[in-house]
Structure formats: structure tokens, C-alpha cells
């Protein structure tokens, strides 16, 4: 098995037949001695089929795919930010750099904070927030990051790594730009092939269209042309 890098993803076959025809994309959640773990949210047909698979069922998996997160240098202080299921993409990064990472994890409600318990075991520097205040700080993860950045005395060379809904990533990109902080975001687009062949997943960047599955899914936030 090829060794995965945090931020990479896998394409999973969800059906041996024609429906659904296309594989589905899932981020590396954790590398364990036994293999890899994925974490997914039920969205539609494909994820419902995956949820119902019996243990021991064999499926075709393609990966690891995409580029992965660039690791911070010794001098940088990483801020790892996840919104909702975006935790699946950044978890293994946060684990790899756990000694120095500041982790921000937000969701709409406590029910959607999938792995807060696992994170609490690893980090002292963890900020959990929910939109409705049912767990942690009340407010969005973007508010929490803005507060942190405003009061960042003693934090040298912050660098941001984020995954979550597009609107959250766009706001994080604004925060990063306004404060001169480097930021990397993991983008999600509908994917058909996952290997750069179909151009179904392109995103507009300042240097032209790029394929999320091949040149991404991790991009410098400053490179993206964010949609309003
Ligand atoms: C690189 C990458 C990594 C991902 N990692 C994870 C992960 O770790 N965990 C996880 O839960 N999900 C992840 N996703 C999203 C996941 O691929 C989709 O939720 C899944 O394909 C939905 O399949 P489905 O058949 O259940 O839903 P469908 O029936 O295909 O769609 C149901 C609804 O979800 C929307 N949708 C489907 N795929 C996407 C997508 N890629 N982006 C936005 N909306 C979509 C559809 O428009 C539709 O409204 C990732 C996506 C990408 C591109
Ligand atoms: S999914 Fe086909 S090029 Fe990206």
C-alpha cells in the first residue's frame, strides 16, 4: 500500500453495477497500523450504500490521490481549522504536528462534532465551537480564529490549514490575507474520475483553472478566485 500523506484522498467504489456509476471521494482521516480510516457523512445514495456494507465486503479503492498539505517549517506555528466533516481532512495533519498545532473545530451543533472526544485526548490547544452554543464556545469557527489571530501575542509565523464548507474557507482566506498569514485550504468539488482525466473538478485560480483532484485538493488560499 502506498503511504498516504495528510490531505490526500481516496476514490471508493460504491456499486459493482451502473448505479451509482462513479466512485466517491473521501479524505484520509487516520493512518493506523492496520491500514487507513475514513470518516464520512451520509449525503446521498453512495454514502448510504457505504454505510450499509457488511464487514469483509471487498470494494475497489483508488489512492492515495491528490497533493496533500505542505508541512509547516520548524519556525511556523500551525493553526489547524475544521468545519463539520472537514475534520476528516485535517485530522491526520493535526496528529502529525500535534506538539505545536493550535486546533479549531466547529460545527452547527454538538451532534455534528464527530470526533471532538478523540481530539481532546491529543490536544491541549483545542478550541471547539458550535453555532448554537450546544458545545464549546458559541459562534463559528471563523469567529474563534479571528479572535485568536487578533490576540496572537507570542505566536510566531502562524500558518493556516483549513477544511470545511466553501463559505468558511472563503472567510478564512480573508482573515489570512488581512493579517499576512499563509493559508492552505482543502477544496471539495464533485469528482468523476479523481485522477485528472475528465476536468470535471476544475476550480478558478489566479493562474487559470486547476483540477482539484490533481493539482489539489490543497491550494494556497491566496491562489483561489473565491466566488462571492
Ligand atoms: C477531495 C474530496 C474529499 C472528500 N472527503 C470527504 C470525507 O472525508 N468525508 C465526507 O463525508 N465527505 C467527503 N467528501 C465529499 C463526498 O465525496 C461526498 O459527500 C460524496 O461523494 C457524496 O456521495 P453520495 O452518493 O452519498 O451523494 P450524492 O447522491 O452523489 O449527492 C448528494 C448531495 O451531495 C452533493 N454532493 C455530492 N458530492 C459532493 C461533493 N464532492 N462536494 C459537494 N457536494 C457534493 C450533491 O450535489 C447532492 O446534493 C470529499 C469530497 C472530495 C472532493
Ligand atoms: S475528477 Fe476528473 S479531472 Fe478531477
Which strand order spans the largest sheet, edge to edge or round the barrel? 9-8-7-6-10-11-14
CATH superfamily of the largest domain: Nucleotide-binding domain of ferredoxin-NADP reductase (FNR) module
Question: How many helix segments?
Answer: 5
User: Helicity, in percent?
Assistant: 10-25%
The set of bound ligands, ions and cofactors reads:
flavin-adenine dinucleotide, FE2/S2 (inorganic) cluster
Description:
Helix content is 21%, strand content 27%. The chain has two domains: 57 residues, no CATH class; 147 residues, Rossmann fold (3-Layer(aba) Sandwich). The protein is built from five helices and 14 strands. The protein is an alpha/beta fold and 228 residues long. Bound molecules: flavin-adenine dinucleotide and FE2/S2 (inorganic) cluster. Flavin-adenine dinucleotide binds next to strand 2 and helix 1. FE2/S2 (inorganic) cluster (FES) binds next to loops.
Looking at this protein, list some descriptive labels.
5 helices, globular, binds FE2/S2 (inorganic) cluster, binds flavin-adenine dinucleotide, 27% strand, 7-stranded mixed sheet, 228 residues, 3-stranded antiparallel sheet, alpha/beta, Rossmann fold, 2 domains
